[in-house]
User: Fold Stress response protein from Fodinicurvata halophila.
Amino acid sequence: MNTLPEMLKQGDKARLFPVLADTSREGRMASIFLAALPMVPSLAEEVLGTAGFRVGKRTRMETYTEVVLKNGPTTNDRPDGLIIAKNPKSSWSALVEAKVGKAELQPEQVERYLELAKANDIDAVVTISNQFVARADQSPVPVSKKLTKKVGLYHWSWTWLRTQCEILHYQQSVEDQEQKFIVSEFHRLLQHPGTGIERFTQMGQNWKEIVQSVTNKEHLKKSSPDVEDAVACWFSETRDLSLQLSRYIGKPVKERIERKFQSDGAARLKQGISNLVETNSLTSGFVVPDAAADIEVCADLGFKTIEVSMKLKAPTDRKSPKARVNWLLKMLKKDDPRLIIEAHWPGRKPPTQKEVDALREDSSAIEDGSSETSPHSLEVKLVEHLGMKRFAGRRTFIEDLERIVPEFYDLVGQYVKPWQAPPPKPRKRAPSEDQLQSEEETILEDEDQRFGA
Assistant:
């Protein structure tokens, strides 16, 4: 009979094939996931790494479900699981709470688990649900900061876990055949609708009314709950979109978030509301590994457009605007009537833009004839006009956004490369000692004249 860890009064080993009632979907999913972690070190390395614990060859891991802890307040709380990971010189433990379907985490329950973890010397609380966060160290629910001073709080969405499985498969990170089979089956399970695993699929109830207000030239109000809901839904969608892009290219794509907002979701939401009210648009940026630039996404409620773009520094070894535009055109392998190149000029000269189709015929068309300067940067955009019906549709807006962003990557993102200055060429003939002495004397004479010697 296996001995339970010291902090446990009661608990069962996590099972890959749990025997649970049909109504216990959360317990079933938690057990399968927790059982898979010790069996597949590559998956554990990716997942626990987001909580700051390093999984190596000498790591030993135990996972339990339906745990009852020895210390803490007397309540009916029973966390869904417990993870204990040990290295020769370090260890890490976490309580796990899982939700599926439309069930959401409640701040009060998460705070009770944080207190329970502290009372039992457990390092962290991990929550798993269909709610999205930008990073694992952010929580989808607000909790008292006092409770997270000594106990870590992390969140993994089921969709994020699915993405990790797909990336492991794409990068062929799991060599052991049995482990590969477990990852494949767990991924297959996460894709099945019967498990209660859901992704973000539609904007809020009043999305159409918000779009209609902008169309009617009405000024949106920062205090409006509908405006706040629209921004919150946009953030949920962009988090989901970063995971979709990760699965699409087989590498982790991160949503770009300003440092000051990374640990302050409320401040980020407030800033997003201000941007929507001031510009009538929703924006986001994505960091793609090894890409030439971040991918920028903008949904303009006034024009009913979705714009996806990348901005590149123009090559300085090409002097004319035409030559700089040709540099970018050569990298674009496929044409599309939605593609536009926008040139950004020095000084106060406004940007100019032209369709890629037109620039293929005459790359000098980007110039307006008012300046002899050349653009310092070039931005390639994909702009699609959706029209009122699809843009204002709660589901169709999300469907089009999730179609357009990958299309931009197909047309642009995978091909463009940043400009890099060429290495200096060697002089045709090494200078003689007399030439070097003459050059040195010339430099000294110039300095004497400069300083009035």
